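To: structure desk
From: M.T.
Subject: fold request, one chain
Message: Could you run this one when you get a chance? Sequence is below, nothing fancy, just the single chain.
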Amino acid sequence: MLEVTLISSNDKEILPPQELLKNKRHLTAKEVYTLIQNRNTSSDSDWQNIYVSNVPGEFCAEQIIQSEFLGYVVLGAIRPAVLKYHDLELKTGIYRSVLNNVVTGDDCVLHNVSYISNYRLGSRVMLFNIQEMSCTNHSKFGEGLLKGSEGEENRIWIGVGNENGERGILPFKDMITADAYLWSRYREDKALMSRFVELTEYGNDRSKPTYGIVESDVVIKNCTLLKDVWIGSNAYIKGAFKLKNITVLSSEEEPSQIGEGVEMVNGIMGYGSHVFYQAVAVRFVIGRNCHLKYGARLLNSVLGDNSTVSCCELLNNLIFPFHEQHHNSSFLIAATIQGQSNIASAATIGSNHNSRSPDGEMIAGRGFWPGLCSDFKYDSKFASFVLVAKGSYQNELNITYPFSLLAPSNEGDCSVHIIPCYWFLYNMYAIVRNKYKFLARDKRVVKVQNIETNPLAPDTIQEVKTAVGRLIELTARYLTLPEDICSRMTTLNYDPKLLNDYRKRAASASNEEELLQVAKDYLHQNQHSQFLLTDDRCQKRYGAVIYKGNQGYKEYRRIIKYFAVEALMDWCKQNDCKALSLEDLQKIEGLPLYTEWLNVGGQVIPEKKIQELFNAIKNKDILSWEKVHSFYNDCMEHYVEYKARYALYLLSFLYSKNIADFTKEIYSDITKDVIYMSMNMLESSISSRQKDFTDFFRTITFRNQKEMDAVLGTINDSGFLKELKESTEKFNADLAVLFSTLCE
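Reply: Done. C-alpha cells follow.
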C-alpha cells in the first residue's frame, strides 16, 4: 500500500553539507521572480533551498524553465552556452525537470529529467529524456559492502564457478580476475575467506551518507531508470532500460558506453567497456575493454579484460581475459575458463546436475576451444589449449594433454580420441598467431591485471612436462601388453625387430623405474612407427585412445627446450648479455626454484608465491586489495628470473643431468631442436596460411583472381607473418650465440 505524508508549511528543509556551499549564495529577489515567471516551483516558498554560484555572470535564471526543486539544490555555473555530443546539441540549464537533493557542476544540461534525487553531478554533464534517476542512502553501487547496521544477509555475492554459490565472491570496484580466482578456489581455508571479506570492507565508512555520482563529461539520454548508479567521467549512456546498483568505471582515456535496451543490476562495469543492444547483466564484474552485446546475458559471473560476448548466456562463470563467445545458441554455465578461449556456435556447455544437487562444474586452461555443437558432462577438466572436435561427450572428462585435439570416437566404442600436441603438429599457424593477436587486441590503457599471452609459459610447460611423463607411462604399458593385443595396438611398424627387442627389455625390467626408462628409450628410438595408447584417466568408465603418442612425445620435448631457451634469452636481455657464461648459470641457479605454477586470472605466478601471499593476508601484513595487487606486480617484476631458473630445471629434467655437467654435444642438441622448432613455426605458419589462397575450393566463389585478391588480399598482406619472420630471424641469431661461451 502506498504511504501518504502530508506536507506542512512548518516542515524544516534539509540543509546541504557545508562543504558544498563554498562560493555559493542564495537567489536574489529578481532571480526568484524570473524563475517563477518561467513556471518553476520550489518546496521552499522562500526559495532558500537553492544555492548558485556567487561569481558574477555564472548564474542565468532564464535558463531554468518549468522545473521543480525539492529538498536542497546546489547549482554550478549556468551560463549562456551549448553542450554538443555527436548530433545532440542542447543549451545548458534545467528544463522540464524535477530535482531533489541534487548538486551540479558547471555548464550542465538537465533536459526532460522527470525525477532526479540524491545525486551529485560533475561539470559538463548532459542528462536528456530520463524518467527516473535516484539514489538511496544505503546504496553500495554494486560492491559487496554493508551500510549502517545492515546484516550479512544484505551483501551482494557473485556465485562464480558453481551454481550452488559455495564459490561466491564479493564484488568491488578494483576487482580483477586474479582476485576472483583466488577467492573462488581456496574455500577450505576459512581464515583466508574471512580475511578476503575484510579486505573488501577496508576503508568502507558504514556511517557515511550515500549519494549518487555522475562525474564530468558524461552523457545520459533516453533512459528509463537509473537507481543507485555511480558513473565515471566521459561515459556515454543511451537508451538503457534499467541500471540499478552498479558502478560504471570510465575515464577520458578509457570511456565506457551503455546502449539501447540494456539492463544491469548489482555489479561493476570496467573501464573502456561497452554493453549494447538488449544485453542483460545481473550480479557481475565486467573487466576493462570488454564488449557485451546483442542480447547477451551475463549472470552471477566475472568477465575478464579484453573479452567479447554476444547473443549467448553466461551463468555462474569465472572467465579470464581474452574470452570470445558469440552466436545465439551458445551458452556457458558453472565454469572457470582460464582465458584466450573461443566458444563456438551451439556449444551448450553447462552443468546438467549429474550429482544429487546443482553443483557440477568445469575448469578449462588457457586457449580452450570447443567446436560447433559441443556439449560435456560435468565434472570435467581440460589442460591448456585443448581443441575439441564437434560432438556430444557423454562422460566426465579429464584431458591432461595440452595443445591436444579431443574427438569423439566414430568407431562404435565409447572411448574418446586424443592427439597430443596437435596444434604444433597440424595447426601451427593458429598457435603461433595466438601470442601476437592477443597483444594486438589488448586495448587497455591502464593494465592492472597482468596477462601472459605467450602459449609457451610456465603454466602450459608444467602441463607439457606432466604429459611427457604420462606418455612414458602409457608406452611402458604398451610394451608389456600380450603380443596379440600389442599387435592390434600397433598401426604402423617400420621396425618389428626394434619393437620385439624393447618388449623383451620391458618384460625383464626389475622395477618400475627401469621399465619407464625402457619406455623412454623406445620413444627416442622409434621415430616413425605408429601405435595406440590407452589412458583410463581421461574419461570416466571408457578412457581415451591416444593417437600419435610418440610424435607428440617428441614435439613436447622440443616445446620444453624452446621455452627454456626463450626464457634464458629473456634473462640475458634483462641482464644485458648475449651469451651465457658459467658464472651466469651459477647466478641463475642461485635464484629460487618454483616448479608448480598457477594461472591466476591471466597472470602466471608460482604456487609458492601465492601461499606466501595468503600468509601475509592472514597475518594482516596485507590489509587491502591494493596491496594484493602490488604483490602481483612484484611477482611480475621477477617473472623473468623465475622463468630462467625453471628453464635450467627443465633442461636438467630432459637430459637427466645437472646443468653443470652439460657437454658441448648437449648444447648442440638443444640448439638443433630449438632451431628446428623456430623454423617449423615460421614455415608451417606460412604454408598453413598459403592454403587459404591456393586451395581450389577457396576460389570457386570468385569470378577471377583479381576479384579474389580484392576480397581476401594476398599472403603478402599478412602483417602477422611479416612480424613472425622478423622475430624468427632475430630469435635464431640470438640462439646462435646463447651457448657459444659454454661450448668453448
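Reply (cont.): Residues 652 and 658 are 5 Å apart (CA to CA). Let me know if you need anything else for the meeting.
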